[in-house]
């Protein structure tokens, strides 16, 4: 965990979200002034284009948010701390992504606009926060509810979700691979999510 209290977690989350959206808007404006075709992506060659999966990917995020709010409202103190840790790392993911799309602006892949305005536009969102947050959500879900999942289940579900993201053309393969590394590092460094890192 990165912050010592809910107050600091919320301040950190608001700062990271604001930084993400402001820098993304700057990247969008720069990319719109210099339109480029979508990049060649090997992952697109091996996955069908299924625009409708954009809704599925977005709705999973909405359901995850509802679940978090329910745990905050009705969960135990330990369960709420897990949600707080997840918010800390969600913010860290936004800062990581910001550090990438602020310095290298890639053209967005050609795909249907998202139903929730987190994808789309002129600039690629380097590192798939959708994929990173989905992996973290699965880990947090298992910890909050004490689920004893086989070791391969979370990687398999993240892989399936990643395939869905590629099919939407909402991210390049490199964005998803970056998210895999971020998830792997987080799970290695802090598998319980709540150990203080700073």
Describe the overall structure.
- With 198 residues, the chain is an all-alpha fold.
- The protein has one domain (6-189).
- It is built from seven helices and no strands.
- It has helices at residues 6-33, 42-45, 53-74, 77-101, 129-144, 153-168, 173-189.
- Helix 3 (53-74) runs parallel beside helix 5 (129-144) and helix 5 runs parallel beside helix 7 (173-189).
- It is globular and about 50 Å long.
- The model has no long low-confidence stretch (mean pLDDT 88).
Compile the SSE list and pairings.
Elements: H1 6-33, H2 42-45, H3 53-74, H4 77-101, H5 129-144, H6 153-168, H7 173-189
Helix pairs in contact: 1-4, 3-5, 4-5, 5-6, 5-7
Gist of the model:
This protein has one domain (about 5-190). The chain contains seven helices and no strands. It has helices at about 5-35, 40-45, 55-75, 75-100, 130-145, 155-170, 175-190.
